[in-house]
Amino acid sequence: MKQLTEQLAQTVVRPRQRDTYKGSFGKILIVGGNAQFGGAAIMSASAAVYAGAGLVSVATDPVNRSALHARLPEAMILDAASSALETAIRQATVIVVGPGLGTDNAALAILKRVFAAVEQTQVLIIDGSAITLVAAHQLDYPNAQLIWTPHQVEWQRLSGLALSDQTVTASQQAASHIPGIVVAKSSQTHVFVGDDVYENMAGGPAMATGGSGDTLTGIIAAFAGQFQPLKQAVLAAVFVHSHVADIVAMNSYVALPTMIIRELPTYLKQLSES
């Protein structure tokens, strides 16, 4: 088992070249945020913007339009239930589906549309509600570069492993039957990439609050849109999220997602120049 380190992240996050523009740093589409859980999509989109994504769009319930524009004017918005969804998917380099999406029939319909429209060359991050829907309805895996970000209960649904059985060995075996990269979130997050297992030593209990997973998903999306290879981008994103939380926690009892998001640009600047 290997450990995620700042040295690994330094090899990924490098200074930007002068002859680049917003299209050089990824076109990210966040699909999520129903009428009850709009904050999840907003936090995921915010993390993507603050982690350097060039263009971020959010396909969500229209009720979230004012909140998103007020919190994150850098992001574009569209109705997830409209015909514009497929167009937005085709234009994206990285798609996130699941933050605050919900698990009702409307959410299932949106998820199926995402799975049908995504292409093999695109990165698809399957998070939150989308993982629950995949497990509950035994959906076929889409043909794309997949990244899964389950917390322990979602991992139980997807892998069939009870929480008490989620050892590293058992989880690695389960992950080997699921295409793509699995980021198994817990107090000691592990990333399963092929035959390799990476342990994240950063982070702590200050992160234990709603929205932390949505924030991580946004950072992964931003890194996947900016950096190559994909494996290294994901590993760096997982480390950066937790390490920035540790920085926040040095002076704060809790490391709220919005606090972590605000600190991202400063830390990434330091990381790129080290």
In short:
By secondary structure, the protein is an alpha/beta fold.
Descriptive keywords:
274 residues, alpha/beta, UDP-N-acetylmuramoyl-L-alanine:D-glutamate ligase, ten-stranded mixed beta sheet, 11 helices, 10 strands, Ribokinase-like
Would you kindly provide a written description of the structure presented here, covering whatever features stand out?
- This protein is α/β, with parallel strands linked by helices.
- The chain has one domain: 3-Layer(aba) Sandwich (UDP-N-acetylmuramoyl-L-alanine:D-glutamate ligase).
- 45% of the residues lie in helices and 16% in strands.
- It contains eleven helices and ten strands.
- The chain has a ten-stranded mixed beta sheet, with helices on both faces.
- Strand 2, helix 2 and strand 3 form a beta-alpha-beta unit.
- The chain is globular.
- The model has no long low-confidence stretch (mean pLDDT 97).
| Name of the CATH superfamily | Ribokinase
CATH-derived architecture:
3-Layer(aba) Sandwich
Taken together, the total number of domains comes to: 1
Based on DSSP secondary structure assignment, what is the total number of beta strands? 10
Mean pLDDT: 97
Helical residue percent band = 40-55%
Per CATH, the class reads Alpha Beta
Helix/strand-derived category reads: alpha/beta
- Per DSSP, what share of the residues sits in E-state strands of 2 or more residues? 15-25%
> How is the biggest beta sheet arranged?
10 strands, mixed
Number of helices: 11
Q: Unreliable stretches, pLDDT < 50, 5 or more residues?
A: none
- Widest beta sheet: strand line-up: 1-10-9-8-7-6-5-2-3-4
Order of helices and strands: EHEHEHEHEHEHEHHEEEHHH
- Shape annotation: globular
For the termini, the CA-CA separation is: 26 Å
What is the CATH topology assignment? UDP-N-acetylmuramoyl-L-alanine:D-glutamate ligase
- The radius of gyration computed from the alpha-carbon positions, rounded to a whole number of angstroms, is 17 Å
